């Protein structure tokens, strides 16, 4: 079975995060560009792979993986030589899972609330991400001792959470740009050769 990952990509999408991860992992991959304007993500052929019609999507060893955080975690485990995930049994695995899931389950919806000017939630206690302000304050504390979410060790969790922070800054989300912790973190991540290769397309 082919080791090559088929990567359904559009650089103007969350697929950019998976692209960076593929480069970090040194994974062999083939890019299939999907043009949203032409509806290429809504063709029967693509919907048969991902019924959500969304990117990123990868296929590896006959298995479809969707959801950016899952793709990033999957690649880290599939290419362990890159050392992008603490192995099961390593105490850091807990923090690693924590920040990956926090990124997908808390940061992303909080960020979308902000970007879409949704009204503050009425029952904060029942909403998993609480509030944008709490999410950002939590991340700020997590990165205070840095340089990465797992301390000295760069991991796939930084690819995901760091990408989200960088994306949020680009869209002018509050409480990020101008905060030294976040500015330094994003600068550190953006300087990585793999991030720069991915930024090229
Ligand atoms: N939950 C998904 C969201 C993916 C997503 O919404 N991707 C957008 C691009 S950033 C997309 O493919 N939109 C096309 C569409 O829904 O038609 C993830 O985390 O990967």
UniProtKB/TrEMBL annotation:
Transferase is among the record's keywords: yes
Q: Which residues form the GST N-terminal domain?
A: 2-83
Show the GO MF annotations: transferase activity
Q: One Pfam family this chain carries? A: GST_C
Source superkingdom: Bacteria
What keywords are annotated for this sequence in UniProt?
Answer: Transferase
Q: Where is the GST C-terminal domain?
A: 89-201
Into which family does the record put it? Belongs to the GST superfamily.
Annotated protein name in UniProt: Glutathione S-transferase
């Amino acid at each position: 079975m082919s080791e090559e990952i088929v990567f359904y990509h559009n650089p103007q999408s969350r697929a950019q995060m998976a692209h960076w991860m593929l480069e970090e992992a040194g994974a062999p991959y083939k890019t299939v560009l999907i043009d949203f304007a032409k509806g290429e993500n809504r063709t029967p052929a693509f919907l048969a792979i991902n019924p959500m019609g969304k990117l990123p999507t990868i296929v590896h060893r006959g298995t479809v993986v969707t959801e950016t955080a899952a793709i990033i975690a999957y690649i880290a485990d599939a290419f362990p030589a890159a050392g992008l995930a603490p192995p099961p049994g390593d105490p850091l695995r807990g923090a690693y899972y924590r920040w990956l899931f926090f990124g997908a389950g808390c940061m992303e919806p909080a960020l979308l609330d902000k970007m879409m000017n949704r009204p503050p939630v009425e029952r904060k206690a029942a909403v998993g991400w609480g509030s944008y302000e709490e999410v950002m304050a939590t991340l700020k504390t997590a990165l205070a001792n840095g340089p990465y979410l797992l301390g000295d060790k760069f991991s796939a969790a930084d690819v995901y959470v760091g990408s989200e922070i960088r994306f949020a800054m680009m869209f002018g989300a509050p409480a990020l740009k101008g905060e030294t912790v976040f500015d330094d973190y994003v600068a550190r991540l953006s300087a990585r050769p793999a991030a720069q290769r991915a930024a090229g397309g």
